[in-house]
From TrEMBL:
Residues covered by the GHMP kinase C-terminal domain: 204-263
The name this protein goes by in its record: Homoserine kinase
Organism: Candidatus Kurthia intestinigallinarum
Keywords from the UniProt entry: Amino-acid biosynthesis, ATP-binding, Cytoplasm, Kinase, Nucleotide-binding, Threonine biosynthesis, Transferase
EC number(s) on file: 2.7.1.39
Pathway: Amino-acid biosynthesis; L-threonine biosynthesis; L-threonine from L-aspartate: step 4/5
Subcellular location: Cytoplasm
Any Pfam family: GHMP_kinases_C
Keyword Metal-binding: no
Similarity section: Belongs to the GHMP kinase family. Homoserine kinase subfamily.
Length: 303
């Protein structure tokens, strides 16, 4: 009998404005892998959203799977992995986090590690460097995370998100490292208190499903958006036009350059159709919230 593992990982948005490096939301855009065992490692990319040129040794899925296997002191067998993706690279939709989660799941399956959900999102968050995108891709739904001084990750997550989102994806990349360079090295006390209060209100509004108020605080970030706004094409215009068309709020998705709007579920389709002719250089999509997180199906065939 030969096994094939089908692994599906949702993309994600991070921050939703002031929830900087803490809040993540899984989106219904997916990275998919078909994994089979063989003697040597091999990747096939079947998507315009995946790199044409790469080496196995530097492939993020491979390096993460190898790191996880070494962490648990097991041997990582050779694999052939066929990948497709709906996640454009360097657009703020969690493409790297989804690859990290995929690498963890590859090792989990082929090395029979039986990792718990907590182990998966803790590993993914440590490798990613923060819990927002990574934990959302593991758990699905809305995640809010923070690392304690001892390194422990505390996470709250809920799959019950009764709202819809629209993403404005430009045809330009913005690397997270570049977007972080424009942030100030520190904030003064009064500024930080104000920024933290806005993040607290966003979190409370999301958890109590007060989406109108959540949208308001999405647009009152002080941690990163004031400094990144000029890196995002049409940022101010999109935000105002979206509000005029009924969006609760609009924010930069992750580090950008994608912009994301929060809407009532019943309005998102009409909203997207209205926005498309106004911003023709953007790929504008209605996206649902993914509620399942990383999923695995195992298929067995007779050789």
């Amino acid at each position: 009998m030969a096994k094939t593992w089908s692994i599906t990982v949702p993309g994600s948005t991070a921050n939703l404005g002031p929830g900087f490096d803490s809040i993540g939301l899984a989106l219904g855009l997916y990275l998919k892998l078909e994994v089979t065992l063989q003697d040597e490692w091999e990747f096939e990319h079947h998507s315009v959203h995946l790199p044409e040129k790469f080496t196995v040794e530097e492939h993020l899925v491979y390096t993460v799977a190898k790191e996880v296997a070494e962490r648990f002191d097991v041997e990582l067998p050779g694999c052939k992995i066929v990948m497709t993706s709906e996640l454009p690279l360097a657009r703020g939709l969690g493409s790297s986090a989804s690859a990290i989660v995929a690498g963890i799941e590859v090792a989990n399956q082929v090395c029979e590690l039986n990792l718990t959900l907590e182990q998966k999102y803790t590993l993914a968050s440590r490798i990613e460097g923060h819990p927002d995108n990574a934990s959302a891709s593991v758990c699905g739904g809305l995640t809010i995370g923070a690392s304690l001084p001892n390194g422990d990750l505390e996470l709250i997550h809920t799959q019950d998100v009764q709202a819809a989102f629209a993403v404005f994806i430009p045809n330009v990349e913005l690397k997270t490292a570049e977007a972080r360079k424009v942030l100030p090295p520190q904030y003064d006390k009064a500024y930080a208190v104000h920024a933290s209060a806005n993040a607290n209100m966003l979190t409370a509004a999301l958890l109590t499903k007060d989406y109108k108020r959540a949208g308001k605080f999405m647009e009152h970030d002080l941690f990163h958006e004031p400094f990144r706004a000029n890196l995002i094409p049409n940022y101010h215009e999109i935000r105002q036009t979206a509000k005029d068309a009924g969006a609760y709020g609009t924010a930069i998705s992750g580090a950008g350059p994608t912009v994301i709007s929060l809407l009532p579920i019943e309005k998102v389709t009409a909203f997207v159709e209205k926005m498309k002719p106004l911003f023709p250089t953007y790929d504008i999509q209605a996206v649902r919230v993914d509620t399942k997180g990383v999923q695995v199906e195992i298929h067995e065939t007779i050789n």
